[in-house]
Amino acid sequence: MLPYEETELKEILLKTKVGEVDLHSRVMRQLYTERNRKERFFMKYKVGVLVMTGLLITASSGFAAVHYQSLNNKQGEVTLQVKPAVSFPKVQEEEIQRLDYSRELGEQLLAEGMAAIFYVLPHNPEGVTDTRSKPVLYSDLSALQAKLAGQKVALATEIGDGYAFENASVYFQPVNLLHPPAAEEAAATAEKLRQQAEQSGKDYAMLPVELSDQMQSLTANYRKGDQEVTVHISRTNGPMTQYVDEQVSFTAEKLTVSGKEMLYTRYAGGNSLAWSTEIPGSRELIHYEINDMSGQFFTKEEMVKLAEGWLN
């Protein structure tokens, strides 16, 4: 899957008109239009420190119903779980509008590797702020590996049969999210920004914040001639939850390779392979997913071969 790194599910939902038809089905069609190259649908929604990323999988004609898969670690604890899309919490239109506006401001105003707290006046009855950031781009793998040293995140110079690292886009956690301020301090910041927004006549205000060195997620591109493979890596505090929509033709199969459970997904535009690793001494998980980006339609065995470097 190809998660929308800076787009939460709430923000994607703004692209629909809530109440016309079933909300989730309209979201699925919207995302299909935006990513029809891969014929996949993704949602992202952050609740506290738990990131729930949506991979929409459907049963093929050979199955009577969707098989809700889950992956477990060696202790039997869930690291990834799949649920029906209809179980995703409903979101109010007012909040969707606010999130979409602050996301657009972040896209317009932030440079690469920058972050800021935004306060927007429209659609913000609760007076809350949103933190936005831009990824850092790397073409030098050694520089990226040095930046990620000690974070239990692995990247290879080459994977599979000659797919060489080309570049990567990395989101780092803003410091105010990694180390949240006290409620009183956060409220004071929101009030200060609200006043600035009202006085400026721009209907928003922003406060730059630093990025930490902690990776939030990254997408690395590997290339062999005109064929491309991406590796998406993300960090969550607890298991990842994926949501299923039955309008798209997917099949998902659970594999066990070198003692590790993996999820192999087949879809009309290519295949993917996902798995999770634990960070010792914490609840945090590192999630990996390899995506076939050029329509190679890798078999299970070929996808596993691409992942070998992470499994040994």
Would you write up a description of this structure?
The chain is an alpha+beta fold and 312 residues long. Helix content is 24%, strand content 38%. β11 (211-224) and β12 (227-237) form a beta hairpin.
Alpha carbon gap, first and last residue? 23 Å
Shape, per Cα inertia axes: globular
Unreliable stretches: 1-66
The profile of the biggest β sheet is: 9 strands, antiparallel
> How many helices in DSSP terms?
7
Structural class of the secondary structure composition? alpha+beta
The percent of residues in helical segments reads: 10-25%
Number of strands: 17
Q: SSE string, helix = H, strand = E? A: HHEEEEHEEEHEEHHEEEEEEEEH
Strand content: 35-45%
Radius of gyration: 20 Å
- Summed over residues and divided by their number, the pLDDT gives a mean of 79
Topology:
Blueprint: H1 9-13, H2 23-34, E1 42-47, E2 50-55, E3 70-72, E4 78-84, H3 93-109, E5 115-120, E6 130-133, E7 136-138, H4 141-147, E8 158-159, E9 163-174, H5 175-178, H6 183-200, E10 204-209, E11 211-224, E12 227-237, E13 240-244, E14 250-257, E15 260-267, E16 270-278, E17 284-292, H7 300-311
Parallel strand pairs: 4-13
Antiparallel strand pairs: 1-2, 3-4, 5-6, 5-10, 7-9, 8-9, 9-11, 11-12, 12-17, 14-15, 15-16, 16-17
Summarize this entry quickly:
This protein is an alpha+beta fold and 312 residues long.
Provide tags for this entry:
312 residues; 9-stranded antiparallel beta sheet; 3-stranded mixed beta sheet; 7 helices
